[in-house]
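Example 3.2
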Amino acid sequence: MKNRNYNKTIWTVKEVLKWTTDYLKDKGCQSPRLDAELLLAHALKTNRLGLYLIFDQPLSDRERMIYRELVRRRASREPVAFLVGKKEFWSLDIMVRPGVLVPRPETEILLEVVLEECKKSPGCTLLEVGCGSGAVICALFSEVPDIDAYACDISMDALQNTGANLALLNGLESPSIFASDLFESVRNGPIFDIIVSNPPYIPSNFIHQLEPEVRVFEPKRALDGGPEGLDIIRRLAQTSRNFLKPEGKLIIEIGDEQSEEVSDLFTTNGFVAVKQYNDLNQKTRVLKGII
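Structure, written as tokens:
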């Protein structure tokens, strides 16, 4: 945070937030005030509410140094979640590290659908394919602590991140998670009541249009769904039935304008009663099918 009047200003919390908001806005950040608050709260080891309780308090030289570096990195469009090491999801602080996707608010729609099914079938067995940060399975355990749930991912970064979040949540050990390319490491036979996934679904030729926070800093393998965005979704539709019990359910998150094609994939592969769920923008975000 450098300008010619920098050293003449008394850098209180209020002044720092105002300056940073304007600076990050100029750098193209979409939520500059929120970003400034989250970064400053992290630097001062407090929360956003805590900032307003010390609004007129000046920052120490050390606090300014720490905060200045955070702002520099955010101005280069590094995600706030990576800078502060966490992202709120389902009212949980989910730890996130580089190498995993940052949890998105729209994925809470996926979680809502899964929770509805879990509450209908107490004691159900569930597998999350592609656990990423661990946001979904952690939120499930927070709501249904006795659920028989497992999670897998092809990425070791994702497995480590999920394992760390599960340990923070309730001390769960690694047998709940395992490395697998979809169902490669799952034993044969119908063993799950529910399979849930938030797979890569962005078409390859659209990746370059994403915001730098996503395009540059998040793992491409977790984003790129192939030419139509359907490569992994197609594999899920084709193979998950082999691991679902009778009347088992496949529940997945999908991208914009994919609902018709994914519904067709579900029905072609033997799923019935395919149901669509919209996000807050009234776009179909989640599909559920019964085998």
